[in-house]
Amino acid sequence: MNGSAQKHSIAAAWDDLRAMAPVTLAALFAADLARTAAFTRRITWPSALGGDAEAGMRIDFSKTHLDDAALTAFEALADARGFGAAREALFGGGIVNVTEGRAATHGALRGSGTDAQVEEADALLARMGMLVEAIHEGALGEIRHCIAIGIGGSALGPALAIDALTRDVCQVDVHVVSNIDGLALEQAFARCDPATTLIALASKTFTTIETLTNAESALAWLADNGVEDPGGRVIALTAAPEKAVEWGVDETRVLPFPESVGGRYSLFSSIGFPIALAVGMDEFRAMLAGAKAVDDHFRTTKGRANAPLLAAFADQFYTRLKGCQTRAVFAYDERLALLPDYLQQLEMESNGKSVTVDGQPVDGPTAPVTWGGVGTDGQHAVFQLLHQGTHLIPVDFLVSIEPGDALDPVHHTTLLMNCLAQGAALMAGKASDDPARAYPGDRPSTTFLLDDCDAAALGALIAFHEQRTFANAVLMGINPFDQFGVELGKAIAKQIASGEGDFDPSTKALMAAAGLG
Ligand code: F6P
């Protein structure tokens, strides 16, 4: 399709979508008795039970306002945007990160990429596995704790996975430290014994000031507490191995990953080393298998049957057609408490953009603000606004059929019941003669029902959201793999540190009051 034909098709798809008469969820269900099945997808992977057993997740999109006509228009939009070719470029090592002239090869980390990329990723994984196993076997002496230092994509994934997967078994007690605020590192020190603590230093670029400052302080803490060779306790996880070596890490303790793996997409690379240290390589490989199952589904499934693409259709529908500025994610599972934080970076750093891949202004709003928390806590704190506030907020609910706890089953059944009740209540609403007690209803939600919330399911959820983010980017014509918006603040912080720079009056006054400059 040439440029003007493409523009025409994109505009035509949006015109069709804008011309659709608003319809309520109740009307959609009434008009189609098979709606639930038609809008439910299931993705499966090999079960942890082994053999031929399967596990998976069911995703119910039926409580969104998408209907057959909207899906047809979104499929036309995807075609006009070249979704199929973009997806092949993603998995085929094409330059999908055009502003930086790079491929985005996070899929290869779990086996979804070109043969050469997958081979390279497998070799790096095998090396990481050998180091993890050697450490577990005592090659570096007794290691009971690990302080994993990194920030953004070098911290949020490990923090999520370690919090999710170490509830029952934990081989090494890992503390993820990201903040430059010394309180964060001090808290980790207080919980670790320096004699048995390893430092995992995670930074894609190995230039991030917060991470390198925290690393220096961690090494000083080891030295001050009698560790003879603090440098020997450092493992570096990076796409810039030469910088790690220059910084002082022994090259045998540098676990590299390819430059083409973006920071917020790096959980399955050596950035996941602290996860593997905590839960073991078998669990880490189970996470990869769950992610691969989603990749396979995403890569081979067409149109509306493709679950991450369908999720992106719903995202576009609410953001662009209904003016929703936020999307909420509530996990009814303590193990997924950090998922909203993880998704915030994934979605907002990827798609919080104002220009298209061609550098033109975008033709509508891009990523909504992702926010959320855990259920049932959220119900007693912020759900009032979801039910009766003036904002329309699509909500994702996540819950596992299998409980994670061993307490009275009443805990888990109450959790499940509450999760399902919220989606039902948002949709149904409730009339009342008393306006303060009336619920408007017709509020959308999507429910992710996991068979179990184990390592494979976590890997699947992460890959699902990576592919959903990519699909959204393609539908909007933007590059999800750069993040130039984070640079200006870093540059100004350096100017403040050096005192050189022309600051605005407010910043000057704040600097003076804070004793800076
Ligand atoms: O400043 C943003 C960012 O570059 C993120 O994209 C990245 O995940 C984070 O900082 C950490 O970067 P690095 O892994 O290079 O230390």
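qc> The longest strand covers residues 40-46.
qc> done
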